[in-house]
Write a structure and sequence with these properties.
The structure is a homotrimer. Chain A is of the alpha/beta class. Helix content of chain A is 37%, strand content 14%. Chains in contact: A-B, A-C, B-C.
Chain lengths: 310, 310, 310
């Protein structure tokens, strides 16, 4: 049944086919119905969380997902707390985790860390976010949220907003959309944070209608799904440039006056002030729902990879 | 049976009635008898420990209590390790935990943090200590310890010693005593660390006989229960004032020569040097017993709130 | 059956007799066959990990071992995260853990910390490494690895290499060998890091053939088991001395050209650059196997001490 996931590494969302993701979403539906029970399907399995870079949501939702399936969980939540601090090389740390556990979730600031780990480990490795491009399980949750809200992913107009250059969640979401048939994708970012050439090339080669924008307000009325990410101060050499960018990509109730009633806003969280607080209680806010779906989607993924029958 | 606790938030000890606490203590007795067994009554439940301020005893005893009942536990033990460090607002962090778990224990340096969390979360919130006044589960353990030592809480003479102004455990203990019928309460503190007006007002309005003291030695012979807390150096603008205060409220074997044979000393721990080390092995020391009762009382509380039958 | 281990503290490898270790190894064999199952033999037990000094491998393998046996695990992984930071004395921290759990694993930078903890705690204490001499469970794993590789521990020629003065794993390994009948032990270290007098005295008093060397290359052809440890820069007042020492005790493919085909290299890990990376994939590298045996040996030890039937 879940044969194509069994024992598999999860490095990039682009490694997956549309029908595989649809299978994952069906199992996620099932996981949601079972979410209040303690299951035993991964009993005897150990999941390692190797978070070389801190993360609350990804780490905790993987931990909850694994435990609900009956697995044991060990790991660390920052580089400081491990022997890496003594100068141990990454490969040796991965080998250790591989010998103690049945699956490793890796989070790392460096591009390619998860891929490298998967080449060393005998057991499956899941990329919990590395570098600037890949956060495949976040993209799975994002797509599943859209499917939940709209009944499907195809035929919708998307706007991906904020830091498209360094933000791994935004980039993974765009990659994920290329596996489906979006009606149009707007890429709205400050000029110094536009999407990387490999992203726009891929969109072109897959024949997806997209447009890069430096203003969001002109298109907001067309959009069904707005995917918002943070614009970090550190990216801007000039503070006044940052202030300008911040204003232009901030989601406010005023901006949303022009939006469709059915517009839904996603955000990988944590958010700081890129979404006005009043938006949280509007009909458009879907990011808390999105966050809550992290557990069932990760339950489904863990079960499929480790071979448990949900 | 435990209907008044079911699904309830635990913010302040003053939210409870005497008979509710007595019910809790009866269940704590039962939990002590079961403490060496793995129970399954909270199986399928997840407890989040959201410790924005570090704590060893409170965090670990909640963790042990939840696990002994069969619940899974996730969380963090300091602000640095979570997305709060990235600037995420407290409400968003609480919403995340609320969607991942069935109950949140919050510890925070700010007054009102637990109350605020309980207004956001759909699931119950337990205050694991916030601000300067509230640490309700510590007060439950303290009262339960007195009941264990003396067979009851009424009719005894209490001295609460140390920092009554900023110490949340001391203040919560005084609040807790107002739900019972103490014979007398002495409040012994340096002048700059006297109990807050809201505390003394409450004692008056509930008709409790109390007296504020700046010297402990004169009344030590009358006291049944001495509740000692730390006097922190940082509270004193002048180091020599600190040294004087420290000496006057330090519990020594010499001071205890004047005490009743049956006097028992409580302390929420950790202690530094406010109790002479030799006192640890005296007949008066009850603080290690008190610490050990943290697990069964918290087991009983978790079971009652989450609806498990102990 | 496991009566001599039941309820016992594990402070130094020298507290054990050869036949006790052999019993442990037999049970470790059994644990390896059960390692993919969730056992329930320690269900209802709580194991505390009190790591006052960070460690990844020791902490995580104890955690995995305890959980695989069905125990719950609580604890901390550095001094900063506990009340020790508030000035609590070590004895009070140990008393707390003792009242919350059934067994404490202590790791501490100070010599004697585990022994002191065992005098305070009512429950058994396992030394997870303290000071400069004792890391008994590492020694158990090391011996078990030799037994796995060579079918036994007696009659082999050993070289222990690196920091023999401050390295607790190396010293514990030498101590452990005195319980068996090695053919010969070479102790190869820079002059300022030679083995302590108590170590060489013990070797003499037990009639073990040993030789202290400052060059490794001359004897490499005779050795069956080479136990390598890190030479830390901080031990050397003069950087040029460090560079010299580092070169002389570094294990390279070139050095190994002179070795027996059957030579096996052990290392307690983490390693930095004391073993050339290419050695990792040679026939001689046994340190990844050694690391992986940490879980079953610790499973066997926990089961024997806490009285569970594996």
């Amino acid at each position: 049944m879940s044969s194509s996931f069994m024992g598999r590494d999860v490095i990039s969302i682009l490694d997956f086919k549309r029908d595989e993701l649809e299978k994952l979403f069906e199992l996620s539906d099932k996981a949601r119905r079972l979410v209040n029970r303690k299951l035993r399907i991964l009993e005897g399995k150990v999941v390692s969380l190797a978070f070389f870079e801190p993360s609350t949501r990804t780490r905790m939702s993987f931990e909850v997902a694994a435990k609900k399936l009956g697995a044991d969980v060990v790991g660390f939540s920052s580089e400081e707390s491990v022997s890496v601090a003594k100068g141990e090389n990454f490969a040796d740390t991965v080998r250790m985790l591989d010998s103690y556990s049945d699956l490793i979730v890796v989070r790392h600031r460096l591009e390619g860390a998860a891929k490298f780990a998967s080449e060393i480990a005998l057991n499956p490795v899941i990329n919990g976010g590395d570098g600037r491009q890949h956060h495949p399980t976040q993209a799975m949750i994002d797509l599943y949220t859209v499917r939940e809200l709209f009944g499907g992913i195809d035929g919708l107009t998307y706007a991906v907003v904020g830091d498209l250059r360094y933000g791994r969640a935004a980039t993974s979401f765009i990659y994920a959309l290329t596996l489906f048939k979006p009606s149009k994708i707007y890429l709205a970012s400050p000029p110094i944070l536009v999407a990387r050439p490999e992203v726009t090339s891929l969109l072109k080669s897959r024949g997806i209608d997209f447009e890069e924008l430096s203003r969001l307000d002109e298109v907001v009325g067309e959009v069904d799904v707005m995917y918002v990410t943070r614009v970090q101060r550190e990216r801007f050499p000039d503070p006044s440039e940052y202030e300008k960018a911040r204003g232009a990509y901030r989601i406010t109730l005023k901006l949303l006056e022009k939006a469709k009633r059915s517009l839904k806003i996603l955000h990988p969280l944590p958010k700081v002030d890129e979404i006005e607080l009043q938006v949280d209680s509007s009909r458009h806010a879907a990011y808390f729902l999105q966050a809550s779906l992290g557990v069932p989607v990760r339950m489904a993924l863990l079960a499929m990879i480790l071979g448990g029958e949900l």
